[in-house]
Every structure is written in structure tokens, then in C-alpha cells.
Amino acid sequence: MTGAAAGTEIAGIELRAERLTKRFGLRTIFADLTFTLVPGDLLAITGCNGSGKSTLLKILANVTERSGGKVGLWRNGTAIDEEKSAAHIGFVAPYLQLYGEFTAWEHVELIQQMRGLPFDPARATEFFTRFGLADRHGDRLETFSSGMMQRAKFVCALIHHPPILLLDEPMTNLDAHGIETMRRIVREEGPGRITVIATNEQEDVELCTKRLSVER
N or C terminus: which one in the chain shows less Cβ crowding within 10 Å? Predict the structure, then answer.
């Protein structure tokens, strides 16, 4: 599944965080987090509810501002422009919204357009099939159950061979088949990409090679 194209996109990518800090008003959520991730790293971010797991993942995904520190993507020693980071990241979270008026297939095409990347129908078909949506990809997303929506988010996140995969509580709303499919993908493709999972599920943590607790 990784293939030559995926390897080309992933090679040399690093995710660097230096003294990351996030505050809401006078409250410090986390401070001075520093780490570097390279292809093959699977990082579990753990912590109780409200400790900042989701906030940290949003900062890494460049969708939430940090209060201090630096974060960025690097390829072979050269920083990647923040405006181009979306083309290198796949992000799945229960709070991400999909456009219900589009079919699942149309939505994946739209996401690729927004990333400035070509749409690969064969890869889309592969992932719709793997996530049990092969017979529903032509249906509007507004007709999907919460579990189907979550599986559609995975298709959107994986369609472009992302060198970095960010997963926030990824098993939310998934049934046993969806959970096993996702964990299989993480196991199979994890050695070739950077994967970060915000979770307190022990089985998800055990998939990872590194752990970062944001408990204060």
C-alpha cells in the first residue's frame, strides 16, 4: 500500500517541536514541550481529559495557534512552508466536520483540491473498500451514521500518502471492524511515516514506539 509514490513523499520528513507552550488566559495547558519525530516514529500522547492532548495535536496540525515555542516540518534539513503543511499531514479527530451536502467520493476529491494535490480514484476506491464504505461512497455524508463519518474521515486523511498522520482519539464511534482496520494500517504503514496518536486506550498506546504525557 505504501508504494513508490508514498515513499517519495515521506522520505526525509521530520516534525520538530521546540518549547511548545499553550495558554488559555492565565491558565497554562502545557509548556516547553520539545521533541523531534522522524519516519518510523509512532508517538502516543497521553493525559487525562482536559490535559491538552487535542490542543497539542491541533497545534501540530497547524490549525490552532501556539502561545510560545516553534513547530514545523522539515525535509532533508530544509523547513517546509507552513502554508504547504496540509499537503504533508493527514488529520483525524471526532470534532472535525465534513460537508454533509457532498457525497463521500465528492468530499475526498474536494479535500485533494484544497490540498492542491491530484485525486487518485484507485487509491480512493481502495480505502473506501478497506473501511467498508465501497457501497456508500456515492451517498451524501448527511445520511451517514457517526461511525461511517469517522471512517470517511480516515479516507480523507489517508488518500494523499501523508508522511505525517495525526490521530485524535481515532477509535471514537468506530465498530470492531473499523478499529481493527485502523490499527492494521498504523501497524503496516507506521514504519514509513510519522504517526501521532492522542489516546488513553492501552491498545493504541501499545502500537506506539514513543510516549509523551501532557499531565501537569
Answer: C
